[in-house]
Amino acid sequence: MEFEFKRAFGEYSIKTSMGHEIVGRWLQEEIGRDADKLQQVFALIEQATHNQSEVLLLSGTEISMSIEAGEVTVQENVLQQQTEQEFEPDMDFYNCESSAACGLEDFSTLIHQWQRFLTTGR
Questions:
Q1: DSSP string covering 55-112
Q2: Is the distance from CB of 102 to CB of 20 less than 8 angstroms?
Q3: pTM of the full predicted structure?
Q4: Could you tell me the residue ranges of all domains in the chain?
Q5: Residue 20: helix, strand or coil by DSSP?
Q6: What does pLDDT average to in each consecutive run of 10 residues of the chain (122 residues)?
Q7: Around Cβ 12, how many Cβ atoms within 10 Å?
Q8: How far apart, in whole angstroms, are the C-alpha atoms of residue 120 and residue 26?
Q9: For residue 26, with 0-12 CB atoms within 10 Å meaning exposed, 13-18 middle and 19 or more buried, which class applies?
Q10: String of DSSP letters for 34-50
């Protein structure tokens, strides 16, 4: 996953590679600059590193993150509620922007770099 952090007019943002846009939205909207939420994410990463058989979840207002078997999934909460329903074929593009997965190591790198960016501006 490729990403780039930006800061303009006191606002912090992230641009991610295609297919991982929801990860950027989650980081900006659900975690942001909140040190307590960042610590929760770090704790879940640590816990997942030591116990990959456990399913870990950080529920957000609009977007949630889960870790299972070394893979991180970030998705809009509405998708979790609609898993039993069939989506129309032309909704696949929307679903790609509403859910993304990556490896735990890549995700950990992203979170550490986000924290560093917030504290140093680089």
A1: -EEE--SSEEEEEETTEEEEEEHHHHHTTTSPPPGGGHHHHHHHEEEEEHHHHHHHHH
A2: yes
A3: 0.84
A4: 3-120
A5: coil
A6: 90 91 95 96 96 93 96 90 51 64 96 94 76
A7: 16
A8: 21
A9: buried
A10: -HHHHHHHHHHHHHHHH
